[in-house]
Design goal:
about 180 residues, mainly alpha, Four Helix Bundle (Hemerythrin (Met), subunit A), two-stranded antiparallel sheet, globular
Length: about 180
């Protein structure tokens, strides 16, 4: 029995050391995996919103000063990559403000940019471990927060702006996708 336990412990240690050597980080933790699952769910939910709006509705804005549906989604994407790049000290995905760019106003380009922002977040989180989530970084407001707090703020931001587009869908006669809490 001791031999078997020793063999299992050694095998587990070899697997963990191989993972550290390959990625530079210990294997993902439960918290990291929870964050990844949340962001993957949010990505799928946002994609359903993008698919629900008609092509004509992409440029819809409820009032002249409000963002259009497409601009709301592009703002969401800018927040995903901006807040997360600050939180995790990574280079930004978009080098320009895509929110006002006509280049991203077609369904294909809009969906691609928004999905890429989620992919950027998810891939970035996969590089982390629990200890790194607790590290503090300086944010654009001059305050220091943990990386996990930054990820939470990014999640809150994308939820807020996707939620705003619920009204846009309703105003265009579209029933929004059902909530995805789990």
């Amino acid at each position: 029995m001791r031999t078997i336990l020793a063999l299992l412990s050694t095998t587990a240690l070899i697997i963990m050391m191989t993972s550290i050597k390959a990625t530079g980080n210990p294997p993902s933790s439960d918290r990291v995996n929870e964050l990844i699952a949340d962001w993957e769910r949010a990505k799928a939910f946002t994609k359903e919103y993008l698919e629900a709006m008609s092509d004509e509705g992409l440029s819809y804005r409820p009032t002249p000063e409000a963002r259009s549906f497409a601009e709301q989604m592009l703002h969401l994407a800018m927040g995903n990559q901006g807040i997360v790049s600050t939180s995790l000290q990574k280079e930004r995905l978009f080098t320009e403000n895509i929110e006002k760019s006509d280049q991203y106003k077609t369904r294909e380009a809009l969906t691609k940019a928004v999905m890429e922002s989620y992919d950027f977040v998810i891939a970035s989180i996969k590089e982390l471990n629990d200890d790194q989530l607790k590290e503090k970084v300086k944010f654009f407001n001059g305050q220091e927060y943990t990386r996990e707090t930054g990820l939470a703020k990014a999640f809150e931001h994308q939820t807020h702006h996707r939620g705003q587009t619920t009204i846009y869908l309703r105003m265009k006669g579209v029933t929004p996708p059902a909530e995805k809490l789990f």
